[in-house]
Amino acid sequence: MLLLARQVTVFRLVQWIAYCALVAATITSCTVPRHFQPGKPFVYKTTINIQGNVPEKLQLEERLINQLDDSVKTQYIYYAGVRRVLEKPPVFDTTNVSRSKLFMASLLHSLGYFNPEIKDTFFIDTVRKQYRTHITFKVIPGKVLKLDSIGYAFRDSSLQSLAMHQQDKSVLKKDEAYTQQKVSDELDRLLTVFRNNGYYKINKEDVYAEVDTVVAALITPTLDPFEQIRLLDSLRKKRENPTINVVFKQHPVKDSSRIKKFYIGKVSVYPDANYEEFDSSIHHTANVKGYQFIYNSHRFRLPFVANNIYLKPGSLYVQRRYFRTVNNFTSLGAWQNVDFEMVERKDTSVPTLDARLKLYPSPKQNLNLSLEASRNVSDILTNGQLFGIGVNGRLLNRNAYREAIQTVTSARFGIELGADFIQTLQASLAHTINFPKFITPIRIKTDSLINPRTVLNLNASYTDRLLLFQSKSFNTSWGYEWVKGRRREDQDQVGQKWRKTWQYIPLNYEYTDVKKTDSLKRLEDQIPSYKYAFNNGLIISQILSLSTGIEKDNKLTLLRGKIEESGGLFGFFKTLDYGSLARFVKFDGEYKHYINQKHSSWAFRLFAGYGYVYGKTKDALDPNKIVPENNLPFFKAFFAGGPYSMRAWQIRHLGPGSSTLYENDTTNIERFGNMQLEYNTEFRFNITTIAGIKVNSALFVDMGNIWSTEYDNTGKRVPDASFHLDRLYKDLAIGAGSSLRFDFDFFLIRLDWAYKIKDPAHAEINNGWFNDIRILNGQFQLGLGYPF
Q1: What are phi and psi of 464, to 5 degrees?
Q2: How far is CA 59 from CA 145, 351, 389, in A?
Q3: Are the C-beta atoms of residues 232 and 117 closer than 8 Å to each other?
Q4: Burial, 418: exposed, middle or buried (Cβ in 10 Å; 0-12, 13-18, 19+)?
Q5: Are residues 235 and 343 in the same domain?
Q6: What's the pLDDT at 382?
Q7: How far apart are CA 249 and CA 707, in angstroms?
Q8: Spatial separation of the C-alpha atoms in residues 414 and 420, rounded to whole Å
Q9: Main-chain dihedrals φ then ψ at residue 253, nearest 5 degrees
Q10: What is the residue-averaged pLDDT of the chain?
Q11: Are residues 333 and 437 in the same domain?
Q12: Residue limits of the Bacterial surface antigen (D15) domain (predicted)?
């Protein structure tokens, strides 16, 4: 009877979802025209059908839609996502159809499609007194031109030598698809190469690309049709595999200075410039490392400023060094604006550029007080964020010690909301110092790095987990941060690049002192694992992390990885190893991928983490007995659930595995693990705009769990809590739901409602699928920002 009841419930749920989807689809399909010209046909719907096997067909279709003439486009306004209004539709005119075909053909030609065809059809549907015109464009792009050969033929021998020397970095590659954008990118790359070798004045008017004349004529949209037939006949062998040759050349020289190398002359630096008229009577001057400084105050140390300028007097002009100087001062934060002007000197036989660097300082200090809601994503005992309400104070000094050293002092008081409303109280005080350089025992060359920094962190916090424990913690770390990978304007090769942000912390010290309540001690008697989880903790670790990403067209991919090792060196001291020092190696990685469309997007996330614990400790019941540690410290362990993880479960209330060890726990104590796997996907879409606030929604699915080493109250190990590959299907938790989101541009409020589609805690019945699913039996989550 129980199984039958569950089957009936699931059937009714599916039936209800199908009915709602049918009603929504019926309402959405209704388009209401308004304010159209009576008695005249108007454009009601325009459709583009792309024929053939075309790569990235959806992206090409969207680009073709953007090429349509405005008079054949349809602009819809959506109300609450279910009512579609066609406001002021344009009058139908066949001239606009022909113009749209010409625009689309031009786009296809620029993308390298060989002899594309575009056919149009339309019909007028009479509905009451409306003459609704449906237009359809049938697009046959044809084959894509492939690059056959790429050559360089510059008149100037020095330019030719530079181009040939950098040929291996060309954007154009043999047998790849030809596009006009790639040719333009290659021209930009060549100009960057020339300017990085002293050719300051050369520009796009001096170089051009010459393509195969016969094929080039075929991709010219204005060519006479009879001439196209003649040329096609001459290219019978190229019809199946059309190719094109590209040669980069130099126009005849009109201004000889454009092909001359320039050198740096006098460099004037204004470290504390202002926007008022300069008063020469009150300024000071100094010559530091060959630079002429003109300043009004001693706000900055002049040698420090000189060390961040990369164009040296007497050196060859290099565009890359120019941009590096600008970007370096911009990223330091002590200046709000950087003006680096190059002026050609006329009174020298050697082409010379005088430089004038004006630096406009930012306000030195900034105090910020805020009330905010935030989230807990990692360590609940250190300075990790909480999901709840927090009061923050932050004092920023942008120019400590007169060398653009940034110091941040912050204080926080927050409460974490959980099943018992107020779940956690936390107070913290932190101080961070960012040095804009590497401070190391040995000199490290950082010329190829962007924003190299040394970071010192000091942090103390207090956490009161009501009715369970109180903890005091102290954390200090010394580390380095830097970015690897040149900015786009610095690149010798134009194109997509993975920029890598690195962080290495050779010394991270954390100590946590835990005071347990009687409630927690009673739980320890019931669940032995708690004896080892909620204890004093000492971590002496080093951390290495990497984050990177790449964006191409409408796709964005982000990758992040982190490894932390604790106790590897200091663990050889037995007093520490057997005491509170935790010894472990922890790995975690995250992959995110986004596909953005005009009114919707897909978002995917994959997370995996594992902690290998190998330390030893004294037995909680017998101090003379040494036992192995089984789990990560609870403030370093993995957890699932809440508004940013498995949303069908409360925060830290999923797992471990498919065990039922905590299912009857009335205190709702958190669950932690040594391992976590999670996959999330969302389909995000726009609904409407109300009073300037964007109202959006999403459908999502979350899959994952955590695993750990657990023991029952008899001391017997619980195998269902540990990870085993052959149990992955049984242990996997699946949640799904919908979301309502209010986007205020500067922040987003998210309301999620999720159901437990597969609950491993009830795996004994139908492997946990659709256990007790009812309309109101879901989990509500309130979040700020996107979940990933």
Answers
A1: -120, 105
A2: 19, 48, 42
A3: no
A4: buried
A5: no
A6: 36
A7: 63
A8: 16
A9: -75, 120
A10: 83
A11: no
A12: 579-788
Q: Are 296 and 282 in contact (CB under 8 A)?
A: yes
The token pair at 653 is: 């209330």
Place of tokens 């960012």: 434
Nearest to 340 by CA among 332, 331, 348, 354: 354
Specify whether 760 is located in the same domain as 639: yes
Whether residue 532 lies inside any domain: the answer is: no
Residue 358: φ, ψ to 5°: -110, 125
User: How far is residue 670 CA from its own chain's centroid?
Assistant: 30
Cβ proximity of 189 and 165 under 8 Å: no
Residues 286, 239 contacting (CB under 8 angstroms): no
Name which of 263, 310, 318 is nearest 291 in CA terms: 310
Are residues 279 and 235 part of one domain?
Answer: no
Does 81 score more than 60 pLDDT? no
Q: Which of 342, 361, 380 is the last residue of a domain?
A: 361
**Angle, vertex CA 154, rays to CA 148 and CA 159, nearest 5:** 115
CA distance 307 to 285: 18
Domain for residue 425, yes or no?
Answer: yes
Q: pLDDT of 694-734, one tens digit each?
A: 899 999 999 999 999 887 777 788 888 899 998 999 999 99
Residue where one domain finishes, among candidates 140, 159, 193: 140
Q: How many domains does the chain fold into?
A: 5
Do 600 and 732 have their domain in common? yes
> Pairing state of beta strands 263-270 and 352-361?
parallel
As a whole number of angstroms, the distance between CA 546 and CA 558 comes to: 11
With CA atoms as reference, report the closest residue to 550 among 496, 501, 495, 606. Answer: 496
CATH number at 639 reads 2.40.160.50
pLDDT digits (tens, 9 = 90+) for 482-501: 988 754 444 444 445 678 99
Ranges of beta strands (E only) in 652-732 are 675-690, 693-707
Q: What is the residue-wise DSSP string for 164-185? A: HHTGGG-S--TTSBP-HHHHHH
Whether 339 and 419 map to the same domain: the answer is: no
Strand 146-153 relative to strand 243-250, pairing: parallel
564 within 8 A of 588, measured Cβ to Cβ? no
Closest CA to 45 of 30, 27, 24, 26: 30
What b/e sequence results for 718-748 when a residue is b if at least 16 CB atoms lie within 10 Å of its CB, and e otherwise? bebbbbeeebeeebbbbbbbebebebeeeee
Q: Is the CB of residue 33 less than 8 Å from the CB of residue 83?
A: no
Q: Is residue 471 part of a domain?
A: yes
**Single-letter amino acid code for the residue at 584:** F
Residue 450 corresponds to which amino acid?
A: I
Give the whole-angstrom CA distance, residue 432 versus residue 457. 5
Is residue 231 helix, strand or coil?
helix
Are 179 and 133 in a shared domain? no
Residue 715 contacts by C-beta under 8 Å, 6 or more apart in sequence? Answer: 528
Residue 158, domain CATH: 3.10.20.310
Q: For the ranges 48-62, 293-307, 483-497, which has the lowest average pLDDT?
A: 483-497
Question: Are residues 213 and 72 both part of a single domain?
Answer: no
- Pair 665, 652: CB distance under 8 Å: no
Query: How far is 135 from 344, CA to CA, in rounded Å?
Result: 58
For residue 656, whether the previous peptide bond is cis, meaning omega lies within 30 degrees of 0, is yes
Tally of CB atoms within 10 A around 639 = 24
Find, among 142, 122, 119, the residue nearest to 132 by Cα: 122
Count of residues making up the chain = 788
Domain region containing 163: 145-258
Look at residue 724 and tell me if it is in a domain: yes
